[in-house]
Write a structure and sequence with these properties.
alpha+beta; FAD/NAD(P)-binding domain; seven-stranded antiparallel β-sheet; elongated
Length: 430
């Protein structure tokens, strides 16, 4: 498919991340004059870091209900048009990426993100897509029949179509610094930008005792509450938690992070995190565990007697909170104090003071609202020459390949949208 014109390109893709690379690769054999502009000197800088370098590239059990957005029907429509199978088939048949699945999680067979990045690079090289690297785009201006793209270096390029795939604001050092919003806002208005916030990010705590737990990992149930009331639960997650010098981390914490930040924005204070170290046991069960240890090890200290059921540093923090001396023999511990310790083990509170921010966030919560786009083509309603895809949009999902799958799906949809537009122009010319 060739569209002859006086433009420099038939399509320019701004952004060489996950969605931009997928969009460009899908278009590669469909149009002849295609370019990718990226501020980095190499493509896929952020993609190479995903999944701690392992690249959890998809999830075979994608549910659109897992995504946060301003229009769930839009997300549902996108996945009905380009599902997991289609995107993974493209990886296998076009990019020659061998994949491996484990508990619904899809990885490259090498378990290395660089494998995926290199596959894109080689495919782009094979298909002679022009790369304009080390260039930061500062403006997109409408012109008759297309758009002009201006870079900070004052270089300009004209194109029939432009795909904005600049990402959100997570990991700004990789080029995902929010600059894409500035490019798009003149076309959609500030009212169509959902306030971007860091998501899938570690939480900060000003609790002076938490630092002493740094390095401890535990399988737990985590709930966030707006108050101390057990009836004020906002959300619950299960998984591994990691205590750190700055607060708490782990997948279950990161899953809850955007909800914590959203709550803070609305209420001017952060919710409280509660950790259940014994999710499989009732409160009464935990009380009896402690009582049995009291009977079995009467001459041990409280800390020593409980060391076999929970990390001793956690016990020390609990005892400190209730002015109890861990060196005291457990046989001296009164029943009400046993119940207090058990309650703490089932509902250990951590005060949250913030997040680690965009520098450490895996994804952006918020972005350009979906009602700005056609759900069939990813094209702006306000300008038929501009398309959006990827993290710049107000769509984000949990850990587990959801966000990269959105990148693949939206990137392919945008590519198909460009193809439809070109075909429409050709039809109109006939």
């Amino acid at each position: 498919m060739i569209l002859m014109s006086n433009f420099d390109y038939d399509c320019i893709i701004i952004g060489g991340g996950a969605s931009g690379l997928m969009c460009g690769s899908y278009l590669a054999k469909k149009i002849s004059r295609l370019a990718i502009i990226d501020s980095n000197s190499r493509l896929g800088k952020k993609l190479s870091l995903t999944g701690n370098g392992r690249c959890n590239m998809s999830n075979s059990n994608i549910e659109t209900s897992n995504y946060s957005s301003d229009d769930s029907s839009f997300v549902d429509s996108a996945f009905s048009q380009v599902d997991v199978n289609e995107s993974l088939s493209f990886f296998e048949s076009k990019l020659s990426v061998l994949t491996s699945s484990k508990d619904y999680l899809v990885y490259p067979y090498t378990y290395k993100a660089e494998t995926v990045v290199e596959a894109f690079r080689e495919y782009i090289k094979d298909n002679s897509i022009e790369l304009l690297l080390g260039r930061s785009v500062v403006a997109i201006n409408p012109i008759d029949g297309g758009a002009r793209v201006t870079c900070s270096s004052k270089e300009t390029y004209t194109s029939r179509y432009v795909v904005v795939a600049t990402g959100g604001m997570s990991y700004p050092k990789t080029g995902s610094d929010g600059s894409g919003y500035k490019l798009v806002l003149p076309f959609v208005g500030t009212e169509n930008l959902e306030n971007p916030m860091p998501a899938l990010v570690q939480l900060l705590s000003n609790d002076k005792n938490i630092k002493s737990l740094s390095g401890i990992r535990s399988q737990v149930k985590v709930s966030i509450r707006g108050s101390k009331s057990i009836n004020d639960v906002i959300a619950v997650e299960k998984g591994e938690i990691l205590f750190t010098d700055y607060g708490i981390s782990g997948i279950c914490i990161m899953q809850l992070s955007s909800l914590c930040l959203s709550y803070a924005k609305r209420n001017k204070n952060y919710p409280i995190v509660y950790i259940d170290f014994f999710d499989s046991y009732s409160l009464e069960d935990v009380v009896h565990m402690i009582l049995r240890r009291q009977e079995s090890f009467p001459n041990r200290s409280i800390v020593g007697a409980l060391s076999g059921m929970i990390n001793s540093k956690i016990v020390e923090v609990i005892l400190k909170r209730h002015n109890l001396d861990g060196r005291v023999l457990i046989s001296y511990l009164q029943r009400n104090k046993v119940e207090t310790i058990a309650m703490e083990l089932k509902s250990f509170s951590v005060n949250i003071s913030g997040t680690m921010g965009f520098d450490f966030a895996q994804v952006t919560h918020g972005g350009i609202k979906l009602n700005s786009l056609s759900h069939l083509t990813m094209r702006l309603k306000s300008n038929k020459h501009i398309f959006l895809c990827g993290e710049i949009l107000n769509v984000d999902g949990p850990c587990g390949g959801y966000n990269l799958q959105w990148a693949w799906t939206s990137g392919i949809l945008a590519a198909k949208g460009v193809i439809k537009s070109i075909e429409g122009e050709e039809t109109n010319e006939v």
